[in-house]
Design brief:
By secondary structure, the protein is an alpha+beta fold. It has seven helices and five strands. It has one domain: Winged helix-like DNA-binding domain superfamily/Winged helix DNA-binding domain (Arc Repressor Mutant, subunit A). It has a three-stranded antiparallel beta sheet. It is globular. This is HTH marR-type domain-containing protein.
């Protein structure tokens, strides 16, 4: 049993919430499942999902991926080489580039989204409507405080 401090109170909990969230993510492991099908790393899959209908600078993309700009550049370079991204010089800052999905990247996104939907459906079909809503509300509550 884990003990955590909340304000001035120590709460005893059978399991830490963060451990449950991590365990859930590990069980689903969407990025890895999807990536193995297409030979993409988890970060490359995340990049494709992040660029859904938007474009952004390579620096912003690296920040959203939680990687260094040099690691972000390697991820972008690999996806550019595969024809999944398009890079254009930023009109406002010639030292920066704007990244977006290519038409091939958009097709990959559709396939990746279908796989993601199947993964979610596999989890949710084991729950009834009330339980699904409880999970959804609990996750929304957690995200409000983070």
């Amino acid at each position: 049993m884990a003990t955590i401090a909340v304000g001035n109170e120590a709460l005893k909990q059978p399991e830490r919430l963060i451990d449950l969230v991590i365990d859930f993510k590990n069980r689903c492991n969407i990025e890895e499942k999807i990536g193995s099908r297409y030979g993409l790393s988890p970060r490359e899959v995340m990049t494709i999902f992040l660029l859904n209908n938007i474009s952004m600078s390579s620096k912003e993309l690296s920040m959203r991926l939680g990687v260094s700009t040099s690691r972000g550049s390697r991820i972008i370079g690999g996806l550019l080489d595969r024809g999944l991204l398009v890079s254009e010089q930023d009109a406002d800052d010639r030292r920066s580039s704007i990244i977006r999905l290519s038409s091939a990247g958009k097709e990959h996104l559709k396939d990746l989204s279908r796989i993601k939907d199947t993964c979610e459906r596999d989890f949710l079909e084991k729950l009834d409507t009330r339980q699904i809503e409880q999970v959804r509300q609990g996750m929304k509550l957690l995200l409000q405080v983070v």
